[in-house]
Design goal:
By secondary structure, this protein is an alpha/beta fold. The protein folds into two domains: 109 residues, Dihydrofolate Reductase, subunit A (3-Layer(aba) Sandwich), CATH 3.40.430.10; 98 residues, Dihydrofolate Reductase, subunit A, CATH 3.40.430.10. The chain is built from six helices and nine strands. The protein has a nine-stranded mixed β-sheet, sandwiched between helices. Helix 4 links the parallel strand 4 and strand 5. The protein is globular, with a radius of gyration of 18 Å. It starts with a strand and ends in a 5-residue tail after the last strand. The model has no long low-confidence stretch (mean pLDDT 94).
């Protein structure tokens, strides 16, 4: 499977407190619409924070929403299914520790789920199952730094495109595109190769990198 990550941040790597989110969204979705994706991968917190249109009745995309939710956080699945940016057949990634009541609720709502991993979702195994069982071959991540970080640490992302907003935010809270435990050796550092570099209106910069696989 090919996995893309497109994310916006300040020059110092912060993904929060973007002063002009409308312009960032314009650039972001301009990139997204240029590629046909089978699925979009989100973390449960990203879905919980998203604004949902409870009256939505149109569909802009037929991609499948895939959500990591082993802790059974999401309750409003009926509203989520109606949103315009994906089809009405979401897939939930769960673990062995996901409560049975939640799985039963998903079954009652005719929502597919994949159990992979013990306490946490085994992302590598889940992606393999998404490709084999659901024929998903190209997916993009729309999530925060924790899920992106986990995907990067497991070498599950093929390309990452960073939209740099012309601002410096500062701060010490870890609101970055790559939220993960500190490395303990150089082998854990992920090498990337620059594929594209473009300036945008209003001082925004677009950088596209491919993830370098060992011995490639």
């Amino acid at each position: 499977m090919h996995v893309d990550c497109i994310v916006g941040m300040s020059l110092d790597g912060r993904i929060d407190w973007i002063k002009n989110p409308e312009k960032l969204s314009e650039i972001y979705y301009g990139l997204v619409m240029k590629t046909s994706y089978d699925a979009i991968l989100c973390g449960s917190n990203t879905i919980l924070k998203a604004e949902m249109d409870e009256t939505s009745s149109i569909k802009y995309s037929n991609q499948t929403l895939v959500v990591v939710d082993s802790k059974a956080k999401i309750k409003n699945w009926e509203i989520i299914k109606k949103q315009a940016w994906w089809n009405e057949k979401p897939i939930v990634l769960c673990s062995d520790d996901t409560c049975r009541e939640y799985l039963q609720t998903l079954e009652q709502l005719s929502i597919d789920y994949i159990i992979c991993g013990k306490e946490r979702v085994d992302l590598s195994g889940a992606i393999e199952k998404l490709e084999k069982k659901h024929s998903i071959t190209r997916m993009r991540i729309d999530s925060g730094g924790a899920l992106i970080g986990a995907m990067l640490r497991n070498r599950l992302i093929n390309t990452i495109t960073v939209i740099i907003a012309p601002q410096l935010t500062g701060g010490i809270s870890p609101q970055t595109i790559f939220s993960s435990s500190d490395v303990s050796d150089f082998e854990s550092i992920i090498d990337i190769r620059l594929e594209d570099c473009r300036t945008q209106e209003n001082g925004y910069v677009l950088l596209k990198y491919s993830i370098v696989i060992a011995n490639s």
